[in-house]
Amino acid sequence: MFRLIGYRVLYAPVLAACFLAVVGLTSIINAQQQYWILDYPVSDFVPMNPNTGLIFVLVSVALCLRSMRFSSRLLKTSAAMVGSIFSVAVIAAGALALMRELFNVQIGDDYVLASAQASANILPLAAAGFVLAGSCLLFIDYRTPAEHYPAEYCAIVLGGVMGVPLIGHFYHVISFGTAAANPDVAPATSIAFVILALGILAARPTHRLMSLWNSKSPAGPLLRRLLPNSLLLLVVLDLAVKWGVERGFYQADKTSPLLILLASSVLFIMFCRTASLLNREYEVRQQGEIALAESNALLRAVSDNTPDAIFVKDTDGRMIFANPAKLRLLGKSSDEVLGFRSQDIYINSDDAERVAREDRSVIETEQAQVFETTTHFPFGVRTLHSTKAPWLNAKGQMMGLVGISTDITDRKRMEDALKAHETQLEALVASRTAEVNELIGHLETTREEEKKAIARELHDDLGSALTALNMHLSLAFQQMPDEPKFTERIAKIRTLLASITTATRRIQNGLRPDKLDVFGIKVAIAEQALEFEKYSGISCNASLPDDALSYAPRVDIALFRMVQESLNNIAKHAQATHVDVILDDTDDEIILNIRDNGIGIAPERLKDVMTHGLRGMRERATYLGGSVTVGNAPSGGTLISATIPKIPANMRNDAEPDLTGDLI
Q1: Alpha-carbon gap, residue 433 to 427, rounded angstroms
Q2: Positive or negative, the Cα torsion across 573, 576, 578, 581?
Q3: How far is CA 382 from the centre of its chain?
Q4: Which of 397, 408, 482, 567 is most exposed by smallest CB count within 10 Å?
């Protein structure tokens, strides 16, 4: 709940206020009825009249309110106002008591004080203490033009004056009682006033004297060590001197010189020790300053002579350090850069906004980031590679950022030129590759044309010649005598003629299968599988689509040559007993798979399978926009897979004639 209302409290003054409230309430309650603790009356522990206790309660409330801190302006103002009201009440009560005791003036006693009996009157010293304490609390935040706080000095005076009766009771000397009828201030009252003075001082730890007392610099620890030790030393010496007088070691009139001599000697030793500590602290600090100066000189030498721009900014984006390289990059002097934001430094507003956005990102995330940007400067556009890291103090608090920028403009230009050159080379290689593919396609087309021409000549010329020869020989054989020697010779001639005819047909089909042009790719592949079984003895199964295929002639001949080359390789190297030829026709691709159950290909050769037959298959597929892969089948053996896209150039156009020149 306290956090919700922004409440924060200083514990030392609040503890002092609680002590004063307990003392005051105890005196008020004990005045109405005498209480005892272990056969001792409470009045012996707190010998204080109820009027004094009542004012101590009021001053404790004022001190407590002055020690609270509120984030809300309304609560802060309310606490200060209520505390001021209680402070004024304490001042009024003390002033009325002083006027009654010193001048016998009776003003509102029945309403202000608990009783008008002389036994319950407030002593003049206590009344003056209340006036002083109330004034301290009322003007606790008042500051003079010379940066002094009078409340601090008044609180010290209050503690010192109220400590005198305590010392008087301790040493059994006359206190501040002005008459025999006026008793001295009780020790409990003196202690309460001393604690009140300490609470007032602790309520404002940032004021001048208390900040010196609480300081972590050498002055603060020395003050906290020297002052209590000095006071304790004086008390101990005084007790020792009095003990010597009581024992008769020396006369009473010698106590003052002896006390002065002993106190001076011991204080001299203490001050010498303090001076030694200060000297040692100064030497350590001087060594640290020398090391810091050397470190700063080294950092300055590095930052001044490095070609990279080094800079430091605070959390608001203001430049607080820039090395000469950074100033040269900006084209400005240090007076024009230090203390200014990016909007005031960069000539381009977009660049300034981008730099500010980068700075905010580093500060908000508290993580180092790398940026590569192009920025406008007075001497031209430069490309910078910048690294920005958060700048944290010893407590881990964000102070700003540290950055270093490297000018990579020349390197970027070289990289751009190299990329442009690589692009040109890639275009040139692509162009040359296209030309090579076209050349390969032209060579394949020319070779297929030559094969077709040779096959046609074999069919037309040699075939017709063989047919005519067979007819003439048949007529000649009919006219020859029926003798055994002629019959045997006729049989040999017929056998030789049949062999020539078969060889001619085989050569013709090898050059250009006539069934491919007449019946299409499916019949040609099926016929090729049957012939492969006949001459190799290896079982060959052809799986073909049921639908009619309408491919361009160049695709038909390419598929047929791939099947032909694959079967030849299987017959020579695979040591297989079964081959599957599978042709799939999908919506987008033509897929040809030739799979055998042979020995397969060794794993180390899979990346370097580049025989002439396979190279020709890949060149055919590449010219058609497809690809060929060779690998081991999952069930063993070799798998050759060819994929050809079904682009318009690879599909048959019924309006165009079937030109053999398009075949490869």
Answers
A1: 10
A2: negative
A3: 28
A4: 482
